[in-house]
Amino acid sequence: MADKQIERTLIILKPDAVVRGLMGEIISRFEKRGLKIVGMKMIWIDRKLAEKHYAEHKGKPFFEPLIDYITKAPSVVMVVEGRYAISVVRKMAGATDPKDAEPGSIRGDYGLDVGDAIYNVIHASDSPESAEREINLYFKPEELFEYCKAADWFYHTHARSKKEYLDSMDCLER
Predict the structure, then answer these.
(1) Whole-number average pLDDT of the chain
(2) Do the beta carbons of residue 3 and residue 36 sit within 8 Å?
(3) Residue 22 in contact with residue 121, Cβ under 8 Å?
(4) Is 71 one of the annotated binding-site residues?
(5) pLDDT confidence bin for 172, thresholds 50/70/90
(6) pTM of full prediction above 0.85
(7) Would you say 90 is a known binding-site residue?
(8) E-assigned strand segments in 59-145
(9) Domains located in the chain, CATH noted
(10) Which residues are listed for ATP binding in this entry?
(11) Mean pLDDT, rounded, for 121-139
(12) Would you say 133 is a known binding-site residue?
């Protein structure tokens, strides 16, 4: 990731995305946008991990309902990489409250407001610092992978061919 515009960010497909069967549709959106999944797993977030993740919200009125929500069923956690990944993913996710999220955003299309709670299907890191902290909460370094996507060479402006790109990325040696 020598290019400073290339970032990694954490995404959580929350329990409602999992139990509603929305995982594939949501993951597909990130891939279609050109983001590369470098780590992904399904986990059941326990209370201890949830409290670490949402520590900045401790003491706020929505803290306990948030912890209950994120620990209610399995989640999919993933790390994606790409140019300006943090802001791209945040924009794709949409406003936190589904009623404020634009149609076409993930929360605008799939989030639910059921009166006493909102189910917004996705978490996305909000800054480089948060992304680093959150990635380290959920992934060990050996669970994140460097690889070349087949189409990367096409967009790589310095390479004149796929072979030149792959050679520069050391992909053929792996």
Answers:
(1) 89
(2) no
(3) yes
(4) no
(5) very low
(6) yes
(7) yes
(8) 75-83, 112-113, 118-119, 122-124
(9) 6-139 (3.30.70.141)
(10) 14, 62, 90, 96, 107
(11) 97
(12) no
More confident residue, 116 or 50: 50
Which two tokens mark 29?
């959106």
Determine the pLDDT at residue 158. 61
Residue type, 97: D
Annotated ligand binding at 14? The verdict is: yes
> Which residue's structure tokens are 């990731």?
1
Give me the helix-helix angle, 23-32 and 85-93, nearest 10°. Answer: 140
Q: So what's the pLDDT on residue 147?
A: 84
Q: Is 4 exposed, middle or buried (0-12, 13-18, 19+ CB in 10 A)?
A: exposed
Q: How many CA atoms lie within 13 A of 29 on its CB side?
A: 19
Which member of 53, 57, 123, 158 is catalytic?
Answer: 123
Active-site residue 158, yes or no? no
CA separation, residue 40 to residues 13, 89, 90, 109, 169 (Å): 11, 15, 18, 23, 22
Are residues 19 and 69 in contact, defined by beta-carbon separation less than 8 angstroms?
Answer: no
Cβ-proximal residues to 21 (8 Å cutoff; 6+ apart), any chain = none
Cα(121)–Cα(66) distance, rounded to whole angstroms? Answer: 12
